[in-house]
Each structure stands twice: as C-alpha cells, then as structure tokens.
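Annotators were shown the component list below and the corresponding predicted structure, then asked to write short factual statements about the assembly.
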Amino acid sequence: MESENQPRGEAEGVKIHDPPSESSIPAADTLATSLSLLGNHMFPEHANPVEINDNTIVNKEAPAESVLSDAPAGEQSLDAEPQVNQVKELETEESGIFECQNSMYTQPAGGVTEEADMSNGQDDSGEFVVTMLARGKLEEQGVGVKGRSSPLLETGTLEAPAFLSHRDEDVTAESWRQHRKHVFVLSEAGKPIYSRYGSEEALSSTMGVMMALVSFVQSGDNIIRSVYSEEHTVVFLQKGPLVLVCVSSSRQSEQQLRGELLYVYYQIISMLTQASIARIFEHKKNYDLRRLLAGSEKILDGLLNLVDSDPSFLLAAVHCLPLASSLRDSLSQILQKAITPNLVFSILIAKNQLLTIVQEKTVIEDARLEPADVHLLLNLIGASSAFQAGEIWTPICLPLFNPDCYFYAYISYLDPPECTVCLLLLSTDKEAFYAVAECKRRIEEAMVAQNSLSLIAKAQSYSVSQVGVSDLRHFMYKPFDVPDNYRQLTQFTSPEMEAPYSSEEEKMRLLDLYRYMHSRIHSTSRPLKLIYHVAERETLLAWVTSKFELYTCFSPLVTKACAITAITKLLRWIKKEEDRLFIRYPPKYSTTPNPSKSSRGGKSDQQDSTDNGFLSLL
Amino acid sequence: MPEGSKMKKPDVKVVILGDMNVGKTSLLHRYTERKFKDTISTVGGAFYLKQWGPYNISIWDTAGREQFHGLGSMYCRGAAAVILTYDVTNWQSLAELEERFLSLTDTANHDCIYAIVGNKADLTDPKAQLPQDSDRVSEDRAECEEETGSQVLSTCPTPPASPASLSGVMVHKQVGHEDAMALYGRILRYKGLEENGSLPAEKMCFETSAKTGYNVDILFETLFDLVLPSILRKRNENQQSPTVDLEDCRGGNNKRGKTACC
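Structure shown to annotators:
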C-alpha cells in the first residue's frame, strides 16, 4: 500500500502557484531544464528529459501575498500531462481501506474498484491494471518497497547495517541511484555540505542543480517544497543558510520526509549551533561548512539510519526501557543526589533506551526537554562511543531547547566492558568536567551499593504476548500529556518486534505500514482519527484521540469487531502497566548556582552561550 | 573502573593533540588496551586515567576536528605534557600542528614537555611494520607477532624481507624525521625556551604505529618518566599549602598528599 500513494494529501496533482505571468514562460524553461538535469542524474532510466517532465509534479508554495495562481501555464511549460494525476489514484491497494473521520464512514479510496478510480483515472485504467499486477508480483517476492520492477531494487532498498561507510560510493553507478533515501545538505551558495551516499565532491554538480532549482523558484518569490516523479519524491527544506534535500523512493509522505530533514538540520545545529552557522555564512557566503563538520558524517549517517529504523522519530516521542517503578525511582534518587552547580540534566540510558531523566528545577520551569533533543543525544552517544574506560566531555547544543547555546555533555559508561549502561550529565559550565566527573563517581558508588547494575541488566523490552491478546502482533502507543506527566517528555511504548517481523526486511515493511498509517492520520488536507486498514499480510488499526495515539498490527484474518475488542484489552493492559512502561514522575533537583564559579548568576546560567572558539578562525 | 572506590585524583595531565584522522585515539588505545581497532571520530575530548606506578596520570584524548577547536585550550590547561601528533603520510597534518594546535598549548604549564609524534609509520617504514620491542613490552610483542606474523604468512609467499607486501603498497612518506625535529625547534622558540636548556629534539620526536604498536610504549613511557619531576614538584607545593589533606595519613607510598591538580 505504500506503493503508489505518495502524491496524496497536500500534493494532489500539479500545484504551482507561479509568480506573475510575464516571467513564467522563460522561467519555466529554466525550471524544466533544471529538472531534467537533476533527473538525468537521479533517475537515469528516464534517459529522455521530456519523459521526466511527464512524470514530474512540482509542488511549490507561494507566500500568501504573491499568490497568482497560474496552474495551466505551469503545466504547459512543464509538459505535465493530466496523466500525472493517475499516480494519486493508485493510492490504494488490493487491500481495502476503511477510514473514519470522527465517525466511521467508508471512504471512496477503499479498494481498487471504488469510485475514486472512475472519477479521474479511467483513461489510464489499462495502465493501472498493469501497474497493479506488476506490483503484486513484487510483493510476492517480499520486496519491502514497491513501485519499480528493477532487479536491483532488493539490494537498493535494504540498508545493510554492516555497510556503514558510503563515502566512497561511485555516484554514477546504478546502485547509488537505487538507494531508498538520499539526503543532501548544501549551503545557499550551492556548496555541498553532506550527502548520505557518495562523496560530496563527486556530487557537487548535482547539488548545484538542486540549488539552481531552489533559487530559481525563489527568484519568483516562491519556495520550492517538493518534486514528485513516479518513483521518487524530492523534498526541499530551507533552514537559514542551509538547504536540505531528500530524494526518496520510500513512499513516505512529504510531511514525514520534511520532518526527517528537520532532524538532520537539528543534528547539524546540535554540533555547531544555529547562531554560529548564521554568523559563519554572514561573514562568508561560500564558506565550506564541511571544514567544521568533518568527522561528523558518521553522526549524520547514524541519525539517518535511526530515522529509518526507529519509530521514535516518526512519533516524536522517546522510548523508555520498561522498569519496575521502584527501581526507576531509586535510580532517579541516585541521580538526584549527585549534583553539582550548573548541572542541568542527568540522564541514564541502557540499551539505547531511557532509564530515567532528572532535571534541574529552574531550567525546566517553563521549558521542557523535547523528544527530538533526546533523540539527538541518544544518536550522539550511539555514534561516538570512545573506548570503554574513557569519559567524554563535549559541547552539544539542544536545538529545541535553545538553538544558539551549548551545553557541555559528560558521557561515560557505567558497566565496561559491556557498555550498555550510559550516564549522560549535561552542564552549562565548560570548565565543570572534574566536578561533573565527581558526580559520576558518586552515582557509580550508589549504584554499586544498591546493586542497580545487575537489576538494570535484567530489564528488557517486553513481548506483545504479555498483553494476552491473541491476534495482536505489535503496537505503538503514545499517550499525550496526562495530568501527572503534564509538560514532561512525550513518550511511547512498544513491544519487541517479533516474528513475523524479526528479519530486517519485515521490520522495515511493518515500519513502512506504520508510516503510511501515520501519514493518513496526520495528513494536512484530510486528517483522520481512525483507520482500519487491511493490508496484504496483516491488518492495521490506527486511532488517535485527545488522550493518545495508537497504532496496532493484527494478524490478517482479524475481524473489525475483534480488533476493537483487542484494542480495549490492550488499553486496559497499558493502563495497568503504565508505571512500568513509562517514566511517570520525573524528579527534579536544584543546584544552587555557584557565584564564585563565574560572573553569570541565577537564571542566566542556563543560557551560557560560550562561543566554541572556532569563529576566531574566520 | 574503580569499584565504587574513592576517585583517584590525577597527579598530572597529558594531552594528545593533532589533526583529525592522524590516529590519536588509536595510539592511546594501543597503549592502554594493547589493541588496534577501528575507531570513530572522537567528539570533544575523552578523559582517561592511567595508573603509572604510584601515580595517576590523566590523559586527554582530544578531537582533531575543527569543530571542537574551541575546547582545546580547556583540555590543555595545566598540562604537564602535550603529544602533538601528525600522520607521516600527510604533510598537511604536520603543518596543522603549527597552525592550529600550537596556540592551544598556551594554557599548558610553563614547564610543559612537548613530544612530536608521527603516526602511521607502518605505512612507510618497513621496520615499523613488525613490532619493535623493548624488554618491557614482551607480552605485547608476543601478541603482535602473532597478529602480524600470520598476516605476513598469508599475504606474502616470500620471506618477509620486504614487509611492504604486508599492506600491499608502501605509501609515500611525506614527513621526514627532520621535518618533525625542525618543528620541535620552532616550538621551543615559540615558547621562548632555550634549545640547550630543553629536552633534545632527537629524544622528543617519535615515529610510531598504533597499528603494529611500533614505538607506542616507548613514547608514553618516556613521557611519563619525564613528567615525574613535575608530579613531585606539584606534590611539594601541595604539601606547603596550608590546607590539611586527610588522605595524607592513609597514603602509604609517600607522605605527600594527593590533591586535585587540575
């Protein structure tokens, strides 16, 4: 079902709001040329640029005051035929979709035979059937992402975890083009900053074309948002002096892809801060930011792999390790006692999941730690483990907390050589390493006294079978602010992915289904509250209320009534277990600012905007 | 890790500086863990505590990336020894030492010792491909010989007289020992030190290989021996301080106290 549905939502058909029409003819020419240039590189199977234009939908957003909707002109100049609309009609699969918007009613998009196909797609029905058949065949082969019949697809779609460095990849090779999701970061001057696959140098011309597209659309007081082709979605995101581009065949919604680009942007900010980046480019428009990011590519690579494989990013919530609430409380107390001036967050992590998080009172009074910041921290830890005995001290910015300032992070493993339990202490004082390291000593001591480490070692994620609902295979449950964790970290809970979702391919397939459900629920044009979706090999039900967001996956033969009963049971089970599944009452501490430490006093302590010093190089 | 023991107070601070990818983390890893493995780019700096006889030596393994440049002077504050590392196959990495890293050492102790280390010698120097041994590192030697020995057997059918075949190709050596020694001289001048009053360049310029272990132990142990006077002096100073250190009474090795140094 994730096969042909991408241009749905806000991207129905060709959506071009062109600038005043006198510029539109020559302008469109340039745009078409740029597109075909980009196309030649990204989608070489369409050797003929005209064909690319045929299949390409450019989706731009005009600033409200300058909207001069001129869609026909746009279509003309782009050679876009009505046929492009066909793509959107292929959204549904052999499986039926039953959707509800507030109350349950059947939506025309259900099944291949519904009216939706008649209304627009009739002239293409022959092609439509062929596509469906081809897709069906692919699905039989168990290909996670459908939509094209290249034999290279299988190798291209799955991210082999062992193959970590893509830097040396040949960017002219077919295999490079087959990657499921490309991400590029460039500066406004068109200088390459990052590419997920292949070296930036080799891609500088491609990135130049991307920048040409961006600035071309910009010159007409417009913003380019996305380009759709049959197999790829190209999403643009402009943040300050940086341009981020995603080229995806994953069939995710534009919104989701843009969210992922935003994570990439935040990760860059977390290393350099927004203020520094702005200053750097103010000074020198064509600065090569890779100078400062050199060595950080792995952190970005790691982030993108996580984004693909960890639903935390999709849900914008953190996943904590289930733990008896008494144990979690005792760990929190240990952290709460080991404090030093300017310490603001103490975070304990096991197996890359949160155990507990304790925070300074005044800092968090009117701001909370955002899940995205926690994700970035977890990714940093995952991508930067020095060898075991070392204690790391590094500046890090939490972009959602404050994009312009650094925290100083102390990172140390408590259980070498296994290195599963990690302590992360964040201070606002650059010089506080020794004081913070002493906190770790005290935490370590207390944990030894309470035998915490061996208790943590026993903690693990749970099996869906513990819920005791026979047809339920997997679920993700994200509660919204409830009174007792009001303004706390948004969390979600989810069991292990077990058979039939134990292989990497199947995991990815399930995640793709969830992503699809998520995109329907959060569609900007037509958000849904409840979706019952019968997929080929499973049945999914997604439900969002004011209290929670829930995604469930059932065996394929479950009936609607069964699923509803199962969800009632599941919700009851979660309620019963919530003390174990979530961090319920994150404790706080108060570190009295030490006036002798620095001239900064009181509240401004948290806003330590110490320059990292590299600007002096400019 | 100390099992909940009282924190060992570092007596002296050693800092490893150098451009990224020259092998700073690998050098330290080779020395402390006796292994060579793939490392990932260090973020910020990593702190290690090394027991050296009765002394605790803190070692800061810093990130070579320009991104973390601003933290450099903080890591160097009060350092008794600085290891300036370059890559023998990369001329720029030596130049960077002078351009970027030397100024960071302004916060180091005035009597700070400087060592200049050319890593990755195994890529250019046949004698660095087999572990050079001193008596002290006999276990290491055995281990290394096992590793490299088997490699040699599998990759070159002829006697390992030309260890170049170990890695297939010899990389062109871009930085000679003399270049490093010349840099050492310039560093002394930068610091305003007399050449004859300081440690000689021959002694303070090393070529190492973290991969084979060549010269790694010698490097660290030479430095540790050289910083001993600095440790003792510091302990003396602390002894003269008016504060009573209760740990004094317990410490069996010396009557002098161990107070935080940095």
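Statements collected:
1. Chain A has 21 helices and 20 strands.
2. Residues 1-28, 45-55, 62-164, 593-618 of chain A have pLDDT under 50 and may be disordered.
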